[in-house]
Amino acid sequence: MNIKLISMLFFATIAVAQTQKENIEVFGNCNMCKMRIEKTALKTKGVKYANWTAESQQLTLIYNAKKTSPKSVAKNIADVGHDADSIVATEEAYNALPACCLYRTVSKH
Length: 109
Hints:
Helix content is 40%, strand content 19%. With 109 residues, it is α+β, with helices and mostly antiparallel strands. The protein has a three-stranded antiparallel β-sheet.
C-alpha cells in the first residue's frame, strides 16, 4: 500500500475514535431558544453537530472528545441564559433572554 494512503487511513481512524455523541438536557421553549442553544453549542470548539428538540428538552451533540466535553458545552449554553445539564443560568443571563424565551416556572426558583 501507498504510504500516503496508510497515513490517511490512520488519521481518519483517530478522528473517528475521538468523535462522540451525547444528549444533554437543555431548557427552552421556542424557536428562538433553539437557534440560540444550537448556535452557542456549535461555537464551542470541537462541536461538530448540535440539534435541540423542545419537546424532549434534549440537545444532541457530536463532538471531538479531545477538544471539548458536554460540561463545557453546557456551561456555554448556561452563559446565554438556558439551564443546561444541571448548570443553572445566572439570573442576569436568564433575564437577558427575550420574553418569549423565559421558560422557568415559579416552582424552579
